[in-house]
């Protein structure tokens, strides 16, 4: 049986009805068609599903939708300012911070959190903070360069 839950997603209030066991990831992708957030492993191992909840980085595959009552969710779709890309999106393009692109939304959401949470003081610290975001193409050096540029 579905239960009601309301939350703000990318600045828009949403009154929703969800199965109690639906993850935030499935709510975003399947109910709201916000498919920028990716499903890699679906069990907390890859970071492709990273979103922000009240500004904090979270793996949305490990989080139930019903627990988001009153929370503010930001996904990759909510990062740009209208037509203008977020500085981190611009830096990923400039530094070639991706190849196939599948992990990129999660990488960018983590990278924004890395700076906001004060963990971007050195390449080592950035790598440590972002170690839960796996990139099968191995774009790690370029991702670190992008984060360092935005940090300045
Ligand atoms: Fe959530 Fe992999 S899909 S961590």
């Amino acid at each position: 049986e579905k239960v009601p839950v309301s939350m703000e997603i990318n600045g828009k209030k949403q009154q929703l009805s969800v199965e109690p066991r639906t993850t935030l990831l499935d709510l975003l992708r399947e109910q709201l068609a916000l498919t920028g957030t990716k499903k890699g492993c679906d069990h907390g191992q890859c970071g492709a599903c990273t979103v922000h909840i009240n500004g904090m980085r979270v793996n949305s595959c490990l989080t139930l939708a019903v627990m988001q009552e009153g929370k503010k969710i930001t996904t990759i779709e909510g990062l740009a300012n209208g037509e203008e890309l977020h500085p981190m999106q611009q830096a990923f393009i400039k530094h070639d911070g991706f190849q196939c692109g599948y992990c990129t939304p999660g990488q960018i959401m983590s990278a924004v959190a890395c700076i906001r949470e004060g963990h971007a003081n050195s390449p080592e610290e950035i790598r440590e903070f972002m170690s839960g975001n796996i990139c099968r193409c191995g774009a790690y050096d370029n991702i670190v360069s992008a984060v360092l540029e935005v940090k300045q």
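Residues 87-151 form a domain with the DNA polymerase; domain 1 fold (CATH 1.10.150.120). DSSP finds five helices and five strands in the chain.
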